[in-house]
User: Fold these one by one.
Assistant:
Number 1:
Amino acid sequence: METITHWIGGHAWSEPPARFGEVFNPATGAVTARVAFADAAVVDGAVASATAAARAWGRSSLAVRGRVLFAFRDLVERRKHDLAALLTAEHGKVPSDALGEVNRGLEVVEFACGLPQLLKGEFSESVSTDVDSYSIRQPLGVVAGVTPFNFPVMVPMWMFPIAIACGNAFILKPSEKDPSASMLLAALWAEAGLPDGVFSVVHGDREAVDLILAHPGIQAVSFVGSTPVARHVYQRGTQAGKRVQALGGAKNHMVVLPDADLDLAADAAVGAAFGSTGQRCMAISVLVAVGDVADRLTPRIRERIRTLRVGPGSDPSSEMGPLITREHRDRVRACVERGGAEGATLLDDGRDVHVPGHEHGFFLGPCLFDHVTPDMSIYTDEIFGPVLCIVRAPTYEAAMGLVNANPYANGVAIFTNDGGAARRFQHEVQVGMVGINVPIPVPMAYYSFGGWKQSLFGDAHMHGREGVHFYTRGKVVTSRWPDPKHRGVNLGFPQMT
Ligand code: NAD
């Protein structure tokens, strides 16, 4: 069986691992590979290689970096079906979803290709007599990214194209559940001409992450994953003096007002709740039906659920694949069980789904609850599976109160035909990413991605301008090239004249 190992200094790490994990095909339940788990020697090796590479890369011209980025962009474009196939094999998402993920990642590479524009500083001539001032942004050195299982290509690509374009060396610790895509990305970087050591991959579990957080050679850590781990990463990393951005979990609401186009809302709710089997941080997990909406919208949602085809990504007719692991599938099943016990009405129960020929796959069909109340665990907990909860709210104000009281604040959507209500909503809602008749409002690469409250620890969102700021340090230079005249020593505070 293949052992997926680390990528350090431009080649695969040759030492046999002391610890490793198993990689599954979630559609069949079979183990397909082993993945090496890093220990201190591996992380030290990656940091040493990255440190050596960062010096020269940070000094390389924007023209040189740009050429490598353009070459990488073309290679990813050419190999995007191979990347998508790896996602289907290890994550389980259906091909259209997998390809969509690669394309959204590619957008950040394209944004990074234009980075010289964003790295431009400011210049003020003659701020004082013979004195000019200008600002520059410089790379941090060695930075690391720790990423979740649900987007093994896109989420790392929120980070490394920008970090590398800014002149840093980047160490990726991908999820141990679907590690193969990161190896193909490393090979593509090498083919694009990126110097050895500028991009490394270190596989592993929490031990590898804690070694990264403690390592004095790493200047900054970007993290995306669940809220408890995001909090841990932020606390540990900042205690160790690092710059940290840590994006956490979510419980995204979709508010539907009585005047909304209910067919549009039903299509959107089903796509956003059950796409990727509900394993998206921007998935809709709560539908807030305002006024009399629930009784009119629910039949439309159920009609669409009935036609959803659950199956493996290898079958082109499948629309919804398996969950990532057996344990996760069982945890989501238990959440559904609890929801019923707590008094919610289970309108559609996906627990009895049967996928012929894939009896050992980690499948669960779409589940729809009505009459969910905010005290129920299916409302308070992030389920991260194909479960949509309908909460009935009497008014817009009650719906807004519900959204703003939630501790998570990643994404939110409102469906309405009333522009004034939508405008009021975008202003009042305390959530990082807002959709108006758009269920999954993932920002384009040139805006920044990130939530508020328990969905983000740290100040900087990912990619866009905030990404550039995260991976660089600002410096202001004040320079004097005087006519050769000297005014003598002055111990007073420098003033511009
Ligand atoms: P996770 O938190 O279990 O793992 C994320 C990463 O942290 C992995 O690389 C993992 O190896 C590592 N890790 C796990 N436990 C750790 C620990 N105790 N200490 C240190 N490191 C640890 O998340 P996941 O299950 O891979 O991904 C799903 C979660 O990610 C969901 O909560 C989802 O909402 C969230 N997510 C958030 C966003 C966002 O943008 N806010 C995007 C995608 C996913």
Number 2:
Amino acid sequence: METVVSGIRSTGNLHLGNYFGAVKNFLKMQEENKCFFFIADYHSLTTHPRPDNLHANIKQVLAEYLACGIDPEIATIFIQSDVPEVTELYLLLNMVAYVGELERTTSFKEKIRKHPDNINAGLLTYPVLMAADIIIHRANKVPVGKDQEQHLEMTRRFARRFNTLYEVNYFPEPDAYNFGNELVKIPGLDGAGKMGKSEGNGIFLTDEPSVIRKKVMSAVTDSGPTLPGQEPSEPVKNLFTIMKVVSEPSTVEYFTNQHASCQIRYGDLKKQLAEDIIKVTDPIRNRANGILADNKYLAKVVREGGERARESASKTIRDVREIIGYKQF
Ligand code: TRP
């Protein structure tokens, strides 16, 4: 059995991008692999959440994970900060990560551009912590969206460097994984880039149907095709991309043909798209609300998951300390 690790930062509700980029793959993988799915609450600290909402954020993502169908009986679900061993491996891996490569990471450069007032060292070493999350369970596969590809490449590099430095073959080099051939990137509704949490761009799994309809209806499009067979513009292509993951193939085909023959009415496409999104999100939203109210269940899930994750993590730390040369007096 192969080992799978993946995590999602607890910085707000899950959106369609998280679902189709990551969680949906978790569901398929949990059946056939040894899976560790966690909530990356240490990673969420880079953006300085307040003490009075940190816990609620974690709880929300946990409830949504479970509502999506991750099964705590077969997969290990845990909170990152319940497994402090990961911070030790993070420190140790910092010794094989070079400042230059961390500074060149795309996600870091983007953060600098967007938040020049909060360039903390935790952001710089974010990929090192992520690598520790993954290799502490000696994972082989990591289901993530396309935006995480570079972080996975760095994880492999750190694992390889550790192996080379200590002349061992201890850490496997994990791969980013998706059931299709390609990693999925779900675009946002504002016409450019991936789906995120910003206003008017993302659809959350817990959005009420009325909210989803409103968001989709106000998604950016264009003034319509003028030549038969014309390539759709970026914002319209984005709507088709979302449609491909939520709608029936025949629906996609219908609107594709409508576009190609210049007969398309974007209002109709959006109405259909909204309804097909709601079909995916509505059962999840209902279940999440029920689970959120069941504190006893949530407590049991994280206690048992935390124990299993710690067991696996502490074994790795024992091995790693020995490899590095720590000995008992
Ligand atoms: N960086 C990931 C994201 O933003 C979250 C994450 C943290 C993660 N640690 C991980 C994903 C380990 C996979 C494996 O989505």
